[in-house]
């Protein structure tokens, strides 16, 4: 038996998959180097694929959906650091070296945000261009704290940018009932994906969020989509101490992650984010930032959601009338 199966990985990479994902993507993922644990979380009943690489673990989630599939993978992560990507996102083969260098320099950081580059669907040739550039030498990168503004973006290619925690204690802003909120602007992050997090922080936060999905001690409310912001803000709220605390850094370009647009059959539809963010509000009601978020997205998506429900009701009535 290969003893390497029992070696603790240095990085866990989690991907919720869908049927028919590209073999081109999988081939690129296999080329990522080092002691990495890959967890592919498939929908229920999807057949596991044949992979001759001991680093890969395949799990079928109990239900279909981005939230339950990603949760399943995260709870099974064994490495000290975790990165969550989708099955159309490509990583620099030396991503593990980047992660190790970063956390050796900043052992108290919670998160490392990768530089990304987007590509249109079908641009396989561009996506498959070899990563000819070496990753940045993290120990040698100067730090930009956001205090010195420049007239160009040259700092974007030269500096690690400090990333503060989300300003969760910002004041409640009632104008979000009719205006766009602005407290999400800045270098902090709301989202979880495409970033390397300390696994222990993620698991503790995930368990707390999971407990608050239970309704009336009997039913469990599990949104289909929108794990990204739910968990990104959930980790920060769970361990929040003060505004402006630096919890990580943003890597400079060139990119360490490449993302391909969805194929036509998986084009993004309107996702009613507030349905997941209500869990954030239930879990962390003490933070005005969560109220601003939920109020804003209720105004933004509530009407669309109600409109869709009414359209479905009318469609059913019309179909029943035709059938009768």
Features:
324 residues; alpha/beta; Spore Coat Polysaccharide Biosynthesis Protein SpsA, Chain A; nine-stranded mixed β-sheet; three-stranded mixed β-sheet; 14 strands; 17% strand; globular
Descriptive account of the structure:
By secondary structure, this protein is an alpha/beta fold. The protein has one domain: Spore Coat Polysaccharide Biosynthesis Protein SpsA, Chain A (Alpha-Beta Complex). Helix content is 32%, strand content 17%. It has helices spanning 23-30, 66-75, 95-105, 124-127, 199-211, 227-238, 274-283, 288-323, and strands spanning 11-16, 36-42, 56-60, 81-84, 89-91, 111-113, 116-119, 143-144, 160-164, 195-198, 214-215, 219-220, 246-250, 257-260. The chain has a 9-stranded mixed beta sheet, sandwiched between helices. Helix 6 runs parallel beside helix 7. The N and C termini lie far apart (64 Å). The model has no long low-confidence stretch (mean pLDDT 87).
> Could you name the CATH class?
Alpha Beta
SS strand fraction: 15-25%
Instruction: Compute the average pLDDT.
Output: 87
Across the major sheet, the strand order is 3-2-1-4-10-6-13-9-8
Largest sheet: 9 strands, mixed
Q: Name the helicity range.
A: 25-40%
Structural class by sheet pairing and helices: alpha/beta
Write the element-wise H/E pattern from the N-terminal end onward.
EHEEHEEHEEHEEEHEEHEEHH
Helix tally equals 8
Q: Any guess at the CATH architecture?
A: Alpha-Beta Complex
Report the radius of gyration as a whole number of Å. 21 Å
CATH fold name: Spore Coat Polysaccharide Biosynthesis Protein SpsA, Chain A
Fourth-tier CATH superfamily name: Spore Coat Polysaccharide Biosynthesis Protein SpsA, Chain A
- Extended strand count: 14
Q: State the low-pLDDT regions, or none.
A: none
Termini separation comes to 64 Å
Shape: globular
- How many discrete structural domains? 1
């Amino acid at each position: 038996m290969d003893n390497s199966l029992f070696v603790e990985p240095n990085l866990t990479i989690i991907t919720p998959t869908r049927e028919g994902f590209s073999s081109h993507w999988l081939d690129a993922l296999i080329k990522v180097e080092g002691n990495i644990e890959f967890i592919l979380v498939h929908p229920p009943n999807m057949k596991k694929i044949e992979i001759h690489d001991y680093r890969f673990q395949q799990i079928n989630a109990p239900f279909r959906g981005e939230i339950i599939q990603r949760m399943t993978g995260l709870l099974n992560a064994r490495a000290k650091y975790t990165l969550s990507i989708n099955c159309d996102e490509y990583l620099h083969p030396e991503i593990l070296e980047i992660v190790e260098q970063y956390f050796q320099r900043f052992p108290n950081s919670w998160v490392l945000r990768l530089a990304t580059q987007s590509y249109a669907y079908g641009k396989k040739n561009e996506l498959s261009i070899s990563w000819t550039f070496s990753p940045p030498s993290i120990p040698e990168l100067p730090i930009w704290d956001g205090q010195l503004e420049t007239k160009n973006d040259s700092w974007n290619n030269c500096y690690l940018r400090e990333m503060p925690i989300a300003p969760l204690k910002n004041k409640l802003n009632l104008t979000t009932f009719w205006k766009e909120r602005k407290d999400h602007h800045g270098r902090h992050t709301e989202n979880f994906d495409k970033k390397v997090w300390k696994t222990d922080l993620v698991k503790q936060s995930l368990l707390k969020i999971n407990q608050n999905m239970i309704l009336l001690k009997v039913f469990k409310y599990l949104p289909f989509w929108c794990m990204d912001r739910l968990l990104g803000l959930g980790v920060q709220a769970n361990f929040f101490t003060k505004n402006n605390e630096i919890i990580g850094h943003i890597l400079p370009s060139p990119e360490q992650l490449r993302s391909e647009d969805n194929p036509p059959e998986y084009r993004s539809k309107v996702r009613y984010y507030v349905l997941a963010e209500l869990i954030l509000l239930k879990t962390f009601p003490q933070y005005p930032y969560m109220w601003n978020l939920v109020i804003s997205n209720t105004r933004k998506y509530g009407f669309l959601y109600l409109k869709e429900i009414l359209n479905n009701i009318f469609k059913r009535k019309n179909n029943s009338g035709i059938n009768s």
